[in-house]
Every structure is written in structure tokens, then in C-alpha cells.
Automatic annotation (TrEMBL):
PANTHER family: STRESS RESPONSE PROTEIN NHAX (PTHR46268), UNIVERSAL STRESS PROTEIN UP12 (PTHR46268:SF6). InterPro entries: Rossmann-like_a/b/a_fold, Universal_stress_UspA, UspA. It comes from the Archaea. Belongs to the universal stress protein A family. This is Universal stress protein UspA. Residues 1-141 form the UspA domain.
Length: 146
């Protein structure tokens, strides 16, 4: 039923719960899990130009992404599941949808809550936008559910 499962992570507890769920489904269906972390480089939600986003801030995002993906790798090491990790840059929902299309994902799995703060309140959650626009089924996982 599922051959390629995409799990989006931001390093939050909700994302780890989603990763555990994706890995469990992958075991059941003998699927490959693709874990994606997106370094947010979109500044459209800020009153600053893109030029004002510093390399240092980008580097912090890359480091956070590497840590988040390592956490998913750690979870996968305990299971008999093939895992591919990817670090993307851009708008999280757009990158998730583009990567899902690139790998021809059968299912996307995401936490219901992740990053907090002003951006989430201004433009809505990443999961909500992915659910709305995804051509494949999207499983949302609440950290309390997993």
C-alpha cells in the first residue's frame, strides 16, 4: 500500500511522534521513509528584505536540521527500515510538497504542531497548508497520540 513515506520534521516532540508513526508504518508496509527538514529562508512574513537574513541565521537552521534528522536516524536505527534524509531550504510547506512530488511519496506524515511563534499565528500551520494542497494522503500525528 505504501512504498515511499515522507516524514517532515522540525525537531519538535510532535515531529518525533510523527517520525515514530512513519517508521512503524514503513515496517508494516516494507516502505522507505524519507525524512525532510526545511530551513526556513522565506522572509515574506517579516518586514525585512531577504538580504537582511544573515548567513549566521541560516547556519543555525542547518545545524538544527542536522540535529533533527539525526534524531530520526536514531529512531530508525532501532527498526528494520530504510531511511533517506534530506535538508531543504525555503518555505516549509512548499518544500515539503515539492519533495513529496520529487520522491513520488505515497503518504506524508507530519506532527500537528511544531514551530511556535508569530509566523505560525500569522500564516497558519505548515501541516494545515500541506494537508490542503497535497496530492497524496497526509497523516497528522498529535504528540499525545504516538
Amino acid at each position: 500500500m505504501y512504498d515511499r513515506i515522507l516524514v517532515a520534521t522540525d525537531g519538535s516532540e510532535h515531529a518525533l511522534a510523527a517520525a515514530r508513526e512513519a517508521l512503524g508504518l514503513a515496517e508494516t508496509h516494507d516502505a522507505i521513509v524519507y525524512a525532510l527538514y526545511v530551513v526556513e529562508t522565506s522572509t515574506s512574513w517579516l518586514a525585512v528584505s531577504k538580504n537582511e537574513v544573515t548567513d549566521a541565521l541560516r547556519d543555525v537552521g542547518i545545524d538544527a536540521g542536522k540535529t533533527a534528522l539525526a534524531d530520526v536516524e536514531s529512531l530508525a536505527a532501532d527498526r528494520d527500515v530504510d531511511l533517506v534524509t534530506e535538508l531543504g531550504e525555503g518555505s516549509a510547506d512548499e518544500e515539503i510538497l515539492a519533495y513529496a512530488a520529487e520522491i513520488d511519496a505515497d503518504l506524508a506524515v507530519m506532527g500537528t504542531h511544531g514551530r511556535e511563534g508569530v509566523r505560525r499565528r500569522l500564516v497558519g500551520s505548515v501541516a494545515e497548508r500541506v494537508v490542503r494542497d497535497a496530492p497524496m494522503p497526509v497523516l497528522t500525528v498529535n504528540a499525545q497520540d504516538a
